[in-house]
Write a structure and sequence with these properties.
By secondary structure, this protein is mainly alpha-helical. It has one domain. It is built from four helices and two strands; from the N terminus they run ααααββ. It has a two-stranded antiparallel ribbon with strand order 1-2. α2 packs across α4.
């Protein structure tokens, strides 16, 4: 996606971490960023993808930009918590706060 904007960069050589995929492999099921952020940081996402689509249809591009910036910030904070502590928390479907080990170095 970024390659056309920086053709000289070899993006495939940059190390990445897909936190949600890593958690899915570890837990055996998918889990959302909001579940992780609220349990780990006590912070909730500002909106969801459905809301962002509505904003797009309404032409409210500034709201989408703010939503995306907030998502990136909360993702960074979750990653840093997991990297620094070796675990994060998530909320089960029943609302329990559960701990899961991560290796995000």
């Amino acid at each position: 996606m970024l390659q056309p904007y920086a053709p000289e960069v070899r993006f495939a050589s940059i190390p990445t971490v897909d936190m949600l995929l890593d958690l899915q492999k570890n837990l055996g099921f998918r889990i959302g960023l909001d579940s992780i952020a609220s349990a780990t940081l006590g912070a909730a996402k500002t909106a969801d993808g459905v809301q962002a689509v509505e904003w797009f249809r309404e032409g409210q591009l500034e709201k989408i930009a703010e939503y995306c910036k907030a998502d990136v910030e909360i993702t960074r904070r979750v990653y840093e918590f997991g990297r620094d502590n070796g675990y994060i928390f998530y909320k089960s479907k029943l609302g329990s706060k559960l701990k899961v080990a991560v290796q995000w170095k």
